[in-house]
User: Fold these one by one.
Assistant:
Number 1:
Amino acid sequence: MTVRWRVLSMVFAAATLGAVAIETTADAKDSALSTSGLPVPRYVSLKSDHVNVRAGPTKDNDVAWVYTKAGLPVEITAEFENWRRIRDSEGAEGWVYHSLLSGRRTAVVTMKAKDDFTPLYDRADVQGNVAARLQAGVVTQVKRCAAGWCHVTGDGFDGWIEQQRLWGVYADEKIN
């Protein structure tokens, strides 16, 4: 009977160690998704007025298109070595070299309906005074976000906008 218990104990131990090894491998695989150590996905912005977007994460891959405006927000959806797979506000995806991206937060104003203008308030409250009306596609610099509102600035405007009206910040994300 003791031999039987030893065999069962060894089988149980092997199964437990196998489960731990599988879990450790899965954890290592998950952390490998972020070679920078930063969370994925996350929003960043384009650092340069000339950013090549490639079909894959090497310079050997073809340039699919080129961004020509610094400051546009993009979402990093994956990392591979020094390359970042990004998605823009229109859903286009491709690979960009990491040094062409900035941690500076920007966002694009979205619209609820065609020809819609988004109010920019003087405080984080719909009862506040409307400081400006922003068209869809306007790029803003995000200063901070809390409680569903973001303080944004741009060329000739400074105020508060409802967070849901921006692409480039996550719902309920807090930015200081």
Note: The chain has a mean pLDDT of 86.
Number 2:
Amino acid sequence: MKRIITALIIVLVLAGCSSGKPVQGDIQNTRFVFEYNGVEIPVNTDAAPVIEALGEPLDYFEAESCAFQGLDKTYYYSGFELTTYPKDDDTDYISTIYFQDDSVSTPEGICIGSSAEDVIKAYGEDYTGGEGSYVYTLGDSTLTFVTENDVVVSITYQAIVDGMK
């Protein structure tokens, strides 16, 4: 009995030493993650550290949020735009990452101009969507590829958030 209590105490002490923050592997297993210049950008996470790590955006736009109290903010970077939404705790969270051109790609190598076949090879056949649309869901995020004539013309990472479509 003494050994069980000692083991339990050790487990509790070690659990208390944990930062409680997910490591990279945890994030990638629970949602889609875009990476740009070594900066990991998962949706549905605090935007402030990501925006700081990305540096000065090329442009910035904000507007009153239709779904939440506060401002939706859009940051424009080379090849993509990142949009945030406000939450009740006055923190902005990443809602979408939209590819603007073929200068950026997903970690699996898919970019605007890739083939629909490349998308399926990289992400599999477990998708929803209509003709020319491939929507993959992982945890609280979606990754959407839109194609025309079997060529990717749009890529969007999207947070799944109550009250937002």
Note: Residues 1-28 have pLDDT under 50 and may be disordered.
Number 3:
Amino acid sequence: RLGGDEFVVLIDDAGASAADAIATGRRVAEKLLVRLGTPYDIAGREHRSGTSIGVSLFGVDTTTVEEVLKRSDVAMYQAKAAGRNTVRFFDPQMQSAVEARAAMEVDLRQSLSRDDLVLHYQPQVGPGGEVVGAEALLRWTHPERGPVSPGEFIPVAEQSGLIVELGEWVLQRACAQIAAWAAHPQTARLTLAINVSVHQFRQTDFVDKVRQALEHHRVVPARLKLEITESMFASDQESIINKMRHIKALGVGFSLDDFGTGYSSLSYLRRLPLDQLKIDQSFVREVLTDPNDAAIARTVIALGQSLGLAVIAEGVELQGQRDFLAAHGCDYCQGYLISRPLPIAQFDRFVMPDAGSDG
């Protein structure tokens, strides 16, 4: 055991050639994936462990023990990035990717300290087209590279632990924006949803951080909504649910994002203090052409109604999709049909088109 949840397996005499060693390494790694992926029981509940395995060869060049471990570590993180429960072998290009990721981490940390990040707001609308709220989405413009996709920098933030600081920044900015909206009758009742990572929930003081942000900005807690994903409940279920209940007691709402794509089961869904289910855009995209996706969308809406939860669909890009969802009782929707995510000045004009420069 190296430490934490990282372990090393040394395979001696793996083969007479590099090809033999690769075959042996892959065979052993795949056996480990199978064994470690076997469900196990703790206190009457079934659990599964996700495993990411990185493999490097030694003896084919002059490498130190430290270098072999470093290469294996690089390959392991590539396996994690590929979605876990996978095996990756080290190659030199991986090292270049790791160095680029390390440079991005430094730049992202500096941008956070310089306040270079911004939030954009994607409107969420009701059946009549009225704006009821927004989802706040983090945007980063690199000083040299220009706009960087969240799909590129968020994984870097998660791997480095910077996601906790980013999450706190988003929480503070979101509460400040809710307070600003409260000053205008046309925006005073808008809700603002922010994405919260499992890393934030694992912080012992997360509930206090939410409470302090609400109090500092003097906002109505019900105007803030925290979006969580199903993958958050792959581990630490009881701890996370307990924190959710404490935050819910403050008056903050919860939306279950990407519903239907992960670990959902009715046994835990009914235990969560939710206010809203969010239909994943992967089901919305083909709702007019794929009977299975249409059935899933209808089922999620019916489930939400039976549990007393509002339902919102994301990724709505066509009027036909919006009509289908509304016809089956979907409460809200968001997507490019309504609007792309907007800088705050443009969002306010979207909500208050007659407000002019004062909006």
Note: The first strand starts at residue 40 and ends at 42.
Number 4:
Amino acid sequence: MDSTSSERAVESLEGIRQRTTQIVHSLSHFLAILHQTEQLAPWPTIHKNFNILLSQIHSLSNTLAIHFQSLRTTNIFPSEEFPVREQEPLLTTLLRTRPLPVVEEWESATLEEYENDPSLKSKSQKKPLPQDVLWEEARDLLMQERERYNWTGYVTRQEELRGEIINQKELEEERAFEEQNAQQTLTKILGFMKSGRG
């Protein structure tokens, strides 16, 4: 890694560290406001602090998005001046490859609870319909819907069943006449709008 890219990586890490520190301070301030009295803080105060927190989180996410590629290729390790003896707990936490034992216990307890609870299993293990059955149901539904409508002509299936059968040719002529009248009316309106005379 050349010096310019390493400088950029250091700058991006420093920016991320600063934004993270700001978020931690804002969160602790926000929690202090929420818990300082028995009565809830005024709504404008809560709203203002929440907006500050949101803007800082947004700023952090933008910084992470901008420096994503350089951060992805950067390997971080402590320098020679790092106080290993004093910061050993921090170092072991940061370099940890497995979850903390508390987290592992919580995960295993949750999985065990899920496996032992039959009500949760029955909800999540509903057998899906086989594909053939699903296609049959879809075909039946399509046939039912198809029967409800008349796909040719100008009358509905219900009108047809009630005996309101209309001569198709007469209906088409009537519709053509209505369209012609509507077109003439529209032409007259547009002519009046253009010239101001009827």
Note: The chain has a mean pLDDT of 80.
